[in-house]
Amino acid sequence: MHTFTTNEIGRIIIIHLGKGEDILSSVQSEINRLNVRNGILVSAIGSLRCAKLHAITTLEDFPTNEYFTYTDPIELGSAQGLIINGEPHFHLTVSDSKRVYTGHMEPGCEVQYLAELAILELPELSITRKLDEFGISYISALEE
Predict the structure, then answer these.
(1) Of 44-48, 113-117, 131-135, which gets the smallest average pLDDT?
(2) How far apart are CA 1 and CA 17, in angstroms?
(3) Residue 115 burial by CB count (10 A; 0-12/13-18/19+): exposed, middle or buried?
(4) Neighbours of 117 (CB within 10 A)
(5) Residue 123's pLDDT band (boundaries 50, 70, 90)?
(6) Is 97 exposed, middle or buried (0-12, 13-18, 19+ CB in 10 A)?
(7) Which phi and psi angles does 31 have, rounded to 5°?
(8) What CA–CA distance (Å, rounded) separates 103 from 30?
(9) Is the pLDDT reported for residue 131 higher than 80?
(10) 86 by DSSP, 3-state: which?
């Protein structure tokens, strides 16, 4: 177990995305522009015309992922995750008229009408991601 704490919070960043915008590339562009190193995606809602995600498919030590693409009218019910060392890692829950889907957000999640995201910046936290022996990324202290 690794635990990281901070008593400092920074900006609250609200992002509105419009028709055709890709969620991850748009968020990456904004966190680069605003120089956000670490933060929490605390809210994300909207409508999508394409959702791309992946989910684990085994319980083996080395993960196997399956990738899914949904291209129907899709509601983005929620997304949450972390931005660590400038890299977003988000999970989402979406639904169409028949089913609910959840998993790791992949590039290509395209907005239909709008998406609204809220990010809480954590400027004083010095963390990064590293890979363990199974190829799984974990949060680690940023080595100075």
Answers:
(1) 131-135
(2) 36
(3) buried
(4) 22
(5) very high
(6) exposed
(7) -70, -30
(8) 23
(9) yes
(10) coil
The b/e string for 78-88 (b: 16+ C-beta within 10 A; e otherwise) is: ebebbbbeeeb
**Residue in the block written with tokens 């498919």:** 57
Q: What is the C-alpha to C-alpha distance for residues 60 and 79, in angstroms, rounded to an integer?
A: 26
Distance CA 86, CA 137 (A): 15
**Residue type for position 98:** K
Round to whole Å and give the CA distance between 110 and 47: 9
Confidence check: pLDDT of 144 > 60: no
Read off the pTM.
0.92
Unique residue bearing structure tokens 């899914």: 68
CB–CB of 142/126 below 8 Å?
Answer: yes
Encoding tokens for residue 64? 């196997």
pLDDT on residue 53:
97
Give the 3-state secondary structure of 22-53.
EHHHHHHHHHHHCCCCCEEEEEEEEEEEEEEE
